[in-house]
Amino acid sequence: MRTGSEPVTARSPLRLRLWLSVWGLFWGAGGAVIFVLAGVEVWAGLCAAIALIALADIALVVHRMRQGPHFQPGRDIPPYEPVHGTLRRYPRAQHLHRP
Question: Which helix (H) or strand (E) holds 42?
């Protein structure tokens, strides 16, 4: 629900998330290679899992970035008026009640 106090210049942190994921991919893949060469399979597997998670996050962030900006109402659009009255959020099913 809009409250009217949203910042006008708010930006999505997708670029920051992308670079943090690239950083995680770099360190995860590098750690996996180093641990494989050192013969420590458990840590190599953990680092490879981190690299795979970072790679999946990169794919998701790039997809979201390619979607482009979405409509955000400007300052001239007032916040939504709350619903007043006896409107229930989850109305009861009528067929479950016996008279």
Answer: helix 41-67
**Long-range contacts, stretch 44-51, CB < 8 angstroms, 24+ apart:** 50/24, 51/24, 51/25
Q: Give me the half-sphere count of Cα atoms (radius 13 Å) on the Cβ side of residue 8.
A: 4
In which band, very low, low, confident or very high, does the pLDDT at 33 lie, cut at 50, 70 and 90? very high
Q: Give the pLDDT band (50/70/90) at residue 57.
A: very high
pTM of this structure: 0.61
Among 62, 37, 60, 59, residue whose Cα is nearest residue 47: 37
